[in-house]
Write a structure and sequence with these properties.
By secondary structure, this protein is mainly alpha-helical. It contains four helices and no strands. It has one domain.
Length: 160
């Protein structure tokens, strides 16, 4: 009887050991945790890639908008310059057709010289604005607008 009892206990121990070897449950939990971590990393990498794609699209759109804004502004300023150049040509033609008095001639020549000098500076800064960066655009454009006002005033001050 003792033998049967020892045999039953022994069989129960062997059966328990065969069903769940020591450490197998912990190993399964560890593998499950690693799989979850790998899945989370993959999802995070995919989310980061989507965020990068969206950022690149937004950056591209912003750059295109800036380029369009800059080109529209420069085009308008070039048209203004063409009109101003026409006025300067008219002033030159008027000088040749109707020679002013000596006093008027000196003042006119001085003012015309100032206007032409300002025009040269304006054209130089207008060309520099073609390659200005977005970070310097607002300040450069404001400076060019002030130069335009000065140039336009100088041309208008030339006696006719």
């Amino acid at each position: 009887m003792i033998f049967r009892m020892h045999a039953s206990v022994l069989m129960a121990i062997v059966a328990a050991a065969a069903c769940d070897p020591p450490g197998q449950t912990e190993q399964q939990r560890e593998e499950s945790a690693r799989a979850q971590a790998a899945k989370a990393r993959t999802e995070a990498e995919q989310a980061a890639a989507r965020a990068d794609d969206n950022a690149n699209k937004n950056i591209g759109a912003a750059r295109a908008d800036f380029a369009r804004t800059r080109e529209d502004y420069l085009h308008a300023k070039r048209l203004d310059l063409v009109a101003l150049d026409s006025t300067l040509v008219d002033l030159e033609a008027t000088r040749e057709a109707h020679p002013p008095t000596d006093k008027n001639l000196t003042e006119r020549e001085n003012r015309l010289s100032v206007a032409l000098s300002l025009r040269g500076e304006y054209v130089s800064h207008l060309r520099a604005l073609e390659t200005s960066s977005p970070s310097t655009w607002d300040a450069s454009r404001a400076a060019l607008d002030k130069e335009w006002d000065s140039l336009n005033a100088a041309v208008q001050a030339v006696p006719r």
